[in-house]
Amino acid sequence: MNSISILQRYGIYLLVLVAVVLFVYILISLIQSFSMEHADRKIKEDRSEGVANNIYYFVRRTTLQQIQLSLGILLSGILIAVLIFCQVYEPLIIVPAAAVFFTLGMISPWLYFAAKARKRADLFRNSILDLALGLTSGLRAGQALPQALEVFSRRCEGPMKEELTIVLREYRLGLELSAALQRMYDRIPCEDLQLLIISIRLTTQSGGSMADVLAKITQMIRGRTEFQQKLQALTAQGRFEALAMALAPLLAFLLLFFINNDLMLPMVQTAIGWCAIGIMLTLEAIGYFVIRSIVNIEV
């Protein structure tokens, strides 16, 4: 009788597991189809600007939403499995923790691609001084502005080469050069590029020596670039301290958990322990963003 009851119990568990898997599969399919339709509608209705536009340079909107949904479900599923392995069966603990990890999974892909977009934008901004120097040299050598842009685009690398290729392609298709440069600024906003575009537009409309104007703009951009580099060097220690202070409690918790898990198990097996973890993570996040806001100096 004992063996029969055990078999019945495991059979019920198996049926429940199959039912849950089918329900989750149907729910994921419905959410993905809805999100893809919504994303396609958003692409047709509006045009993304700024950081979002740079993010979608690396990944399509529909693909990003699929990655977010899949990673959120994966992380919440892993957390539920870990909690069950640690003999935590209370729904008041499992459900909020799974919801938090699902939210983290939804946010993480966006943060990853946003970081890639910021890196690409930084590489582009670091090339603005080279662009100004190249245009000045080309104009003083007797080249027209489109020819100077084309010559410089052959020598440069990275995001600047990609963006200048788009600008020259639009110019050949009939768009004014100043408008094509303005569209490049709309894709990757940069104050130094805006100064360069305004000087080119005003000199083209009012006349004068564009080489001399660009030479003065180049000196201004060089001074701004040197100041930004000094500022980044002075605030590097503060940015490292923010990251170290945020990661130190997590590393200490993992170290103590592996050294003496009997001492740390109540943190993950009780509601009070999870409340303490939630409060700790909230305070750590607040401290990290406060320090980052202090060392992030806008000029």
From TrEMBL:
Domain Type II secretion system protein GspF residue range list: 136-256
Localization (cell): Cell membrane
Segments passing through the bilayer: 12-34, 67-85, 91-115, 240-259, 271-291
Major location category of this protein: membrane
GO cellular component terms, A-Z: plasma membrane
Domain of life per record: Bacteria
Annotated membrane topology: Multi-pass membrane protein
Protein name per the record: Type II secretion system protein GspF domain-containing protein
